[in-house]
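Batch manifest, entry 17 of 40.
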Amino acid sequence: MHCRHCGQQVEAIAAFCPHCGVRPLKSNNYCQACGAATTPEQEMCTSCGSMLKTHRLATEEDAPGLAKAVSCCFPIVGLILYFVWQNERPRAAKAVCQWAVLGVILGSFLYLVSMCAGYTLY
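Output type: structure tokens
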């Protein structure tokens, strides 16, 4: 693998490039597969044809915060948010989907407990 910042060869598991000190996939100057020079707008390397990868740290927009709690209380909202966010915010989409499933399980459990106790939820 090549560092996308300096173009030097690095180990595939390297957290930081030993040559320049930058995360190997953080920049957009070189192709990670062949080391050819690239531009920031490129999505595919014109030399080797591989898709250019970038390292993206979790940001505030990926952490849905309140959306998780709403998805737990109202699972249909979590399902809708999952389909809206699945392409542009995959981490947030996965999180709200998990919380929606948790809400369905928790709601079903509470309903069964109340039925066993003789209470109805009318």
